[in-house]
């Protein structure tokens, strides 16, 4: 529990011989019982008090560690609600921490990245952002813009002075430095997207080429039904895997062919839709059969997607027509060629030898949009200064850049922005 009254509410439900919650030293765990409104025993628990501002939220906070189990937890929560507490809204604890100055907005967003991290790399990136690495870089840009705006405002207040060439050059230099710093961070957006959402890889090809077998092989367990009958896979199947620290969304699809019946037609339609939106396509082909050069891809967007030719069923022998064909040769039956395929996936996706620098900064889509605006207005302001434009017009663009940068760390008055961000949190945290 966090907020005004947390200690008083805990006092109503917690019983421990010789210990009142209001008198407990902070951060000292005390053993006791939780009782309901009628004084009936619910559970033996550990209770800890954190006094403001030395808590996660910056408010008085009480933590109760009960035994596991749905029924016990629900009973303890019910007792607290009966005593005057209420269930937390999504993201409310972290929102309160932000409002009370315990963290900036980039650190608050990192809490969700930390919870949702699927690989060690994603976890490291979230932890770096939690430490304030991104916030520190953004705050440095914000200070640059604030100082530049202060100089411009002074010239606006005293127009008779005018902007001397040296001052104009210094302000312009600040603007260009902000632009350069913004572009460096923008370049990490794709890495951030992959770490948060995963690399989207679609397994596609003709029916019975071994697509589902490849999915099962990469997963390490039998997720998809495998059969010699064509058209076994009717819908898309999606699973997450970890390829050397990179989260990957694997999507198995229906065989790409001219379907006859309605259900299979819908499966092929969904397969083509997944192919069009993929980061990478694994085009699985059966090398035991005579090579068919007619592409199962329909052209248009399908043709533009990056693809790896996966030459499957090498255990059955390779037909002479495939001898000169480039691709990764595998056998799902013998489980051979998997490591080569993983190497090819990372290389084709531009992630071969992928690792973060020491800063481990990877911005998200919201950060990228703010940085792009800051970059645009900073460069525009520098151009206006170079052309000798009046300080009033330059200051407008500097303010726009400042607002964009401030939006990253939450130093703007944007209640709607905060509501949108924190609404994606799980209940409470």
Would you give an account of this structure?
Strand 2 and strand 3 form a beta hairpin. A 6-stranded mixed beta sheet has the order 6-7-5-8-9-10, with helices on both faces. A 4-stranded antiparallel beta sheet has the order 1-2-3-4. The mean pLDDT is 84. It is α/β, with parallel strands linked by helices and 429 residues long. The radius of gyration is 29 Å and the shape is flat. The N and C termini lie close together (11 Å). It folds into 3 domains: 6-87, 2-Layer Sandwich (Gyrase A, domain 2), CATH 3.30.1360.120; 107-188 and 362-422, Up-down Bundle (Four Helix Bundle (Hemerythrin (Met), subunit A)), CATH 1.20.120; 197-348, Rossmann fold (3-Layer(aba) Sandwich). The chain has helices spanning 6-13, 70-82, 92-99, 105-116, 120-130, 133-157, 165-186, 189-197, 211-219, 262-276, 301-304, 338-348, 365-386, 391-409, 415-422; strands at residues 14-15, 30-35, 41-50, 61-65, 199-205, 237-243, 246-252, 280-286, 307-312, 328-329. It is built from 15 helices and 10 strands.
Write a compact overview of the structure shown.
With 429 residues, the protein is α/β, with parallel strands linked by helices. It has helices at 6-13, 70-82, 92-99, 105-116, 120-130, 133-157, 165-186, 189-197, 211-219, 262-276, 301-304, 338-348, 365-386, 391-409, 415-422; strands spanning 14-15, 30-35, 41-50, 61-65, 199-205, 237-243, 246-252, 280-286, 307-312, 328-329.
Q: Helices and strands in order, then pairings?
A:
Elements: H1 6-13, E1 14-15, E2 30-35, E3 41-50, E4 61-65, H2 70-82, H3 92-99, H4 105-116, H5 120-130, H6 133-157, H7 165-186, H8 189-197, E5 199-205, H9 211-219, E6 237-243, E7 246-252, H10 262-276, E8 280-286, H11 301-304, E9 307-312, E10 328-329, H12 338-348, H13 365-386, H14 391-409, H15 415-422
Parallel strand pairs: 5-7, 5-8, 8-9, 9-10
Antiparallel strand pairs: 1-2, 2-3, 3-4, 6-7
Helix pairs in contact: 4-5, 6-7, 6-14, 7-13, 13-14
């Amino acid at each position: 529990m966090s907020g005004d009254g947390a200690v008083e509410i805990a006092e109503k439900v917690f019983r421990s011989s010789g210990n009142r919650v209001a008198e407990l030293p902070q951060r000292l765990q005390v053993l006791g019982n939780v009782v309901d409104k009628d004084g009936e025993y619910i559970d033996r628990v550990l209770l800890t008090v954190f006094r403001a501002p030395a808590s996660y939220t910056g408010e008085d906070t009480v933590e109760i560690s009960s035994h596991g189990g749905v029924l016990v937890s629900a009973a303890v929560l019910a007792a607290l609600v009966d005593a005057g507490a209420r269930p937390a809204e999504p993201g409310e604890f972290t929102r309160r921490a932000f409002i009370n100055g315990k963290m900036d907005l980039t650190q608050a967003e990192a809490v969700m990245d930390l919870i949702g991290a699927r690989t060690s790399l994603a976890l490291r990136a979230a932890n770096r952002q939690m430490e304030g690495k991104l916030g520190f870089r953004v705050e440095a840009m914000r200070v640059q813009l604030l100082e530049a705006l202060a100089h411009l405002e002074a010239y606006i207040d005293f127009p008779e002075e005018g902007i001397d060439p040296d001052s104009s050059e210094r302000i312009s230099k600040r603007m260009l430095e902000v632009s350069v710093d913004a572009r460096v961070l923008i370049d990490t957006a794709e890495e951030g997207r992959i770490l948060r959402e995963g690399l989207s890889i679609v397994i596609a090809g003709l029916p019975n080429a071994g697509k589902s077998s490849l999915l099962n092989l990469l997963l390490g367990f039998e997720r998809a039904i495998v059969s010699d009958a064509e058209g076994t896979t009717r819908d898309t199947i999606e699973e997450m895997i970890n390829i050397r620290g990179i989260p990957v969304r694997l999507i198995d699809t229906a065989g790409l062919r001219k379907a006859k019946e309605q259900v299979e037609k819908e499966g092929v339609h969904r397969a083509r839709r997944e192919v069009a939106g993929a980061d990478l396509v694994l085009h699985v082909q059966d090398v035991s059969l005579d090579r068919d050069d007619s592409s199962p891809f329909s052209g248009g967007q399908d043709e533009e997607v990056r693809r790896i030719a996966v030459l499957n069923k090498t255990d059955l022998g390779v037909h002479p027509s495939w001898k000169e064909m480039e691709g990764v040769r595998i056998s799902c039956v013998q489980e051979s060629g998997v490591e080569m395929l993983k190497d090819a996936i990372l290389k084709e996706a531009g992630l071969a030898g992928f690792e973060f620098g020491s800063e481990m900064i990877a911005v998200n889509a919201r950060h990228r949009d703010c940085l792009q605006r800051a970059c645009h207005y900073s460069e525009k302001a520098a151009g206006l200064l170079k052309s000798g434009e009046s300080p009033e017009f330059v200051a407008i663009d500097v303010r726009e850049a400042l607002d964009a940068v401030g939006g990253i760390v939450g130093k703007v008055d944007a209640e709607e922005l905060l509501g949108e961000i924190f609404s994606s949190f799980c209940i409470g945290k």
